[in-house]
Automatic annotation (TrEMBL):
Gene of this entry: Nsmce1
Name the UniProt record assigns to this protein: Non-structural maintenance of chromosomes element 1 homolog
Claim: Zinc-finger is one of the keywords in the record: yes
Keywords of the record: Chromosome, DNA damage, DNA recombination, DNA repair, Metal-binding, Nucleus, Telomere, Transferase, Ubl conjugation pathway, Zinc, Zinc-finger
Coiled-coil residue spans: none
Top-level taxon of the source organism: Eukaryota
Record lineage: Eukaryota, Metazoa, Chordata, Craniata, Vertebrata
Family label: Belongs to the NSE1 family.
């Protein structure tokens, strides 16, 4: 195999900043790419971010780490996240959280993945807190733990409804697809895991909201791309 392109100080700086953030929106990553190249006087091409990242990835390979690109389910924007491939993500979380916090996270994930639209209400989640097998949690305590999951970018919250953060989906896609085989669905359009999504009433296919928007952009009478029945959900 060809030797990987060498890592420069620009690559190292990019990696350090990404490590401190855990995840970055595409436009931020593009700005960072440019800044790193300028600071270290390394050749910069605005359309070469993915090549720049793959150079870093070839050097991360022996460390079982990888920068992965994924899309936000809310608005379809690209994000870059640093992923640890050596451990399954739940084991990685195990070093940061107690057993009952992890159990609460798993149960929250169950609710989100089995829901129709990819959200779980705080009420439903907090009701699980006193049913934990490891060690029951008081509501106040559980609220605090949920806050931490949001700060650590495992969950995101909107008006008391929780869903999986983009970082969590990028990191855990494989884990979720293999551990939730009967429930986890892929988006009919982009074929990646679909949590926040709409479902066809007739045939049951799922589509991400940005994919729904793209798919029906020019249609006055939106029909399911799979079964051709009327699309019953409101187009976002």
């Amino acid at each position: 195999t060809a030797m990987a392109a060498p890592m420069t100080d620009a690559h190292r700086r990019f990696l350090q900043v990404l490590m401190s953030h855990g995840i970055m929106e595409g436009s931020e990553a593009r700005k960072l790419h440019r800044r790193c190249c300028e600071i270290h006087k390394v050749y910069y091409a605005h359309d070469k971010l993915d090549d720049f990242v793959s150079t870093i990835n070839s050097h991360l390979q022996p460390l079982f780490m990888q920068i992965r690109k994924g899309l936000s389910e809310g608005d379809g924007r690209a994000h870059y996240a640093l992923v640890n491939l050596a451990e399954t993500e739940i084991t990685k979380m195990a070093s940061d959280y107690t057993e009952n916090e992890l159990e609460l996270f798993r149960k929250t994930m169950d609710l989100i993945i089995s829901s129709e639209d990819g959200f779980a209400s705080s009420t439903d989640i907090l009701n699980l807190a006193d049913q934990l097998k490891t060690k029951k949690m008081k509501k106040k305590e559980a609220e605090q733990v949920l806050k931490v999951f949001v700060e650590d970018k495992w969950l995101s919250e909107r008006n008391g409804e929780y869903t999986l953060h983009t970082r969590c989906i990028i990191e855990m896609e494989q884990y979720i697809l293999s551990n939730y085989q009967d429930m986890a669905r892929k988006c009919y359009i982009c074929h990646s895991l679909a949590i926040q999504s709409q479902v066809c009433d007739s045939c049951g296919i799922r589509m991400h909201l940005p994919c729904v928007r793209k798919c029906f952009r020019a249609q006055t009478d939106p029909r399911c791309p799979h079964c051709n029945d009327c699309w019953s959900c409101d187009i976002p």
